[in-house]
Design goal:
- The chain has 267 residues and is mostly helical.
- Helix 6 packs across helix 8, helix 7 packs antiparallel against helix 8 and helix 8 packs antiparallel against helix 9.
- The chain is globular.
């Protein structure tokens, strides 16, 4: 425990508050992650391996910038989210396409990896709250969990849409329904806020991936045929607009203006 915390003053949280804007831009980021990964690897002809190396290097730079901020800065944070969404998609695609790992195995494997990350996080910090990401260790655990949620979401989304042959639209509606159930359990059923957040965060990945595939894939494969480049540019533009709005409208958060973070997590 730092001297600042003992004195009753928490350092700045390094991740955003969970608002409607948060979920909107997160959904767009994961949708773009799916289409951008496909565009770079397939349409540009870079291949999965080269695309993965390039995007991992860019992500490393973005994460380094994010860590250096020591506080939430919309442009740095959401750039990292978009890039980790792309890399998470590529991790799963590499395992499936290059190494022949079945989708059900990758889904189970990333579920276990995410569970172990949460287990280690809780063992070290005694909380999984995103309202208290104010140390380097907590932030590192946070971003590791985010990476696994994206990889898991890609595997689960592809498993349902392709292996189970439900199609992109049906898959998107299925995962939207799951999110609705989680929201109902939180607002009406008293589900723990931390559990509800992470469940919803995981499920928005396959929802976004299904939407991305629905928009970008050819009509003969069950998509709407807009293509990966136009779909990616559409969501990138929307993300830039929202992040710009967040940046311009942000104001320093004072402790007396904000509800207790512990109280929020107990809701």
């Amino acid at each position: 425990m730092t001297n600042a915390i003992r004195a009753g003053h928490e350092p700045a949280n390094r991740v955003p508050n969970v608002t409607v804007d948060f979920w909107l831009i997160k959904l767009m980021a994961v949708t773009m992650g799916e289409t951008a990964a496909d565009y770079l690897a397939v349409n540009l002809g870079l291949g999965l391996t080269a695309t993965s190396v390039i995007m991992a290097a860019i992500l490393a730079v973005a994460i380094a910038i994010q860590f250096s901020m020591k506080r939430y800065v919309p442009s740095a944070y959401w750039a990292a989210v978009v890039l980790i969404s792309i890399v998470g998609t590529l991790v799963t695609d590499n395992l499936v396409d290059n190494f022949g790992v079945p989708l059900d195995v990758t889904t189970i494997g990333f579920s276990i990896a995410l569970f172990l990350t949460f287990l280690g996080w809780y063992a070290l910090e005694r909380t999984l709250s995103i309202h208290t990401i104010f140390t380097t260790r907590r932030e590192a655990l946070y971003w590791l969990a985010i990476l696994f949620t994206f990889a898991l979401g890609t595997a689960a989304g592809d498993l349902v849409a392709e292996r189970m042959e439900l199609g992109y639209l049906s898959t998107a509606l299925l995962f939207a329904g799951v999110i609705a159930v989680i929201a109902l359990a939180y607002y009406r059923g008293g589900m723990n806020a931390i559990l509800a957040f992470w469940l919803a965060y995981i499920v928005t990945r396959p929802l976004g991936a299904s939407l991305g595939d629905l928009l970008s894939q050819p009509v003969e494969y069950g998509g709407l045929g807009f293509g990966t480049i136009y779909t990616s540019l559409l969501f990138l533009g929307a993300i830039v607009v929202i992040v710009t709005y967040m940046t311009l409208s942000a104001r320093p958060e004072r402790d007396e203006d904000s509800p207790s973070r512990e109280a929020i997590d107990r809701r």
